[in-house]
Each structure stands twice: as structure tokens, then as C-alpha cells.
Design a protein that fits this description.
The protein has about 140 residues and is an alpha+beta fold. It has five helices and two strands; from the N terminus they run ααααββα. Helices cover about 35% and strands about 10% of the residues.
Length: about 140
């Protein structure tokens, strides 16, 4: 059985987004897909919500904005640039997300507490006391 999505169409419209760009039932499927994506990228999100470490409304907000970014290209919501000309009737635009991909921004990943960077070091050789060549082959100390 699939886990409950973090958002449904009523959550999407309650946040002021226009659902008319999606066909019947498509919005709820996109919200469920975004919820699965969040769970895949942040495997502890459900546990953190249960433990009270993460506000479920924040996750709902993030899932809704993910879907809003994936609005179909024929909607003006997905345009980053629009050009219009009155005379020979020209119109153009640049689509921000032409394939409607779902993704999390760095800020959203940070808000969810997942995908943080980790710093580490990698030893490039052996330790100096194990290097015979440093002491001309002698390992005795005077």
C-alpha cells in the first residue's frame, strides 16, 4: 500500500495556485508523485514528522510548490520570459521547466533536513612513520 501523499488538490488550491492547468485527476497524481520524490530524496521525512522534528505543513507547502514549478508549458505560470509585439502579431516566451520535472531546491532540501553536504578527508599516502624512504631506509631512531 502506498503512503499517503503529503498534499492533495485542496491543499494546492488553498495555497493560491491555479489548478486549471491540470486535467481531471492529474493534479492529485502530480502531488502524489512529488510526495514519492520527497520520500525518495529524504527517506527519514515521515519519521521526522512523527517525532515532531518536522512540521507536516512545511512538507505540504514544498510538495505544492514542486508541482507548481512543473505546470505544463502551455500555461503562463511556467514562463520565465514573455515577448509580445503588436504589430505583425508576434508572441514568444521562455519556459522555465519545459519537461515539467519535479525537483527540490537547495533551500527546500535544507528545510526538509536532507541532502546536506558532508566534508571529509582522504589520506593520499601512508603515514610518515611508515615511509622508509623518508628515513633513507632506516627505521631506527637515535
Amino acid at each position: 500500500m502506498a503512503p499517503t501523499p503529503f498534499a492533495v488538490s485542496a491543499d494546492y488550491t488553498a495555497r493560491g495556485y491555479d489548478a486549471s492547468a491540470f486535467g481531471s485527476g492529474v493534479l492529485d497524481m502530480r502531488l502524489a508523485a512529488a510526495s514519492r520524490f520527497v520520500r525518495a530524496q529524504c527517506p527519514t521525512v515521515d519519521e521526522r514528522i512523527t517525532d515532531g522534528e518536522l512540521d507536516p505543513a512545511l512538507v505540504t507547502d514544498i510538495v505544492c510548490v514542486m508541482v507548481h514549478r512543473s505546470v505544463p508549458a502551455d500555461s503562463h505560470a511556467g514562463l520565465t520570459q514573455v515577448q509580445q509585439t503588436a504589430g505583425p502579431f508576434s508572441q514568444g516566451g521562455t519556459v522555465a521547466n519545459p519537461h515539467g520535472d519535479l525537483y527540490l531546491t537547495k533551500a527546500e532540501r535544507k528545510s526538509l533536513g536532507c541532502g546536506g553536504q558532508v566534508a571529509f578527508t582522504v589520506p593520499l599516502g601512508t603515514y610518515p612513520d611508515e615511509c622508509d624512504w623518508l628515513t633513507d631506509g632506516s627505521s631506527s631512531s637515535s
